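Subgroup meeting minutes
Present: P.N., E.W., G.H.
Scribe: E.W.

1. P.N. recapped why we're keeping a running log of single-chain structure predictions: easier to compare across weeks, and new members can see raw inputs and outputs side by side.
2. G.H. added today's entry (336 aa).
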Amino acid sequence: MKAPTPPSAAGPGPRSSAPPAAPLAPSAAPPASRDRTPPVPADLDLRLVRSFTVVAEHRHFGRAAADLHLTQSSLSRQIARLEQQVGARLLDRTPQGNELTEAGQAFLPAARAVLRSAAQAAARARAAAEPSRVTIGYISGTIVTPAVRALRRRHPDADVRTVHLNFGDVAGALLDHRADAAVGRLPFPTEGLHVTVLYDEPRALMMPRDHRLAGKDSVSLDDVADEPMPRIPDPELDAFWRVDPRPDGRPAPDGPLIGAVEDKIELVASGQALAIVPLGVGTAVFRTDLTLVPLRGVDPSHVVLATRAGERGRLVTAFRSYAEALLNGGPAAAQA
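Output recorded in log:
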């Protein structure tokens, strides 16, 4: 799937019949504009910018500091230095957490773009210096081993690496050049990516072995209409994996907000919620206190291979062909 081609620029406007303005004298300076945005300082520290984006994501200094492996006081000093460099207050502390100021809201998308551009520039430099290195990403419940083995066997000179990705990080890892190809599950943002469906995978309900529905051949959404299900921060992922809204228009019952698959598994095991998962996730969850029951009446999940749009490197091209040939039967076939 390729990003849409931007429209072409507009042609020249109507020609003016007014005489040209007289040139400014050499000593004259253009009038200052009160609305002119001050230039970004040349010494803007990307480390501080990254810290700001993490605080903006968590809206909480304590959680952001833990994520960055910093103390709260050190993180506060970093944000203060960034605000000094930018020339505007970016965050306000409130009893409920931290809120972006108007300046912070304007700065956040540009900050993310700057970080992504810096990561891409570094990755392209590394790729040019090391053309025989490739990194293959995968998420839990998927298997890339047969294709990776084929790539290593056919290209013994290559440095082939694998990296586990969080279920919501496939697009980010590719666009940030942390991975060159990745096997993941839709939905995720596909702009700027080339995506190929490898196989469809039925969805199932994960539940404790002592649940009233455990052992059934299959279940429907009506059977679990009132069962809470863990929520995911990403709205598109959340809607798909909780089937929200339900086919009859009712909202799915809310469960606790989670940030990782492991949190979901623990909630289910403790009896606090049920979870809709790919049927193949059973290959990655070795817990005797849990079971999966196929869920009927819902669309399957699509397991896909994704690469950056326009990527034509020899190793990525080779891996794509091996993945399409060897990974199209799902985890069971890959382990056969």
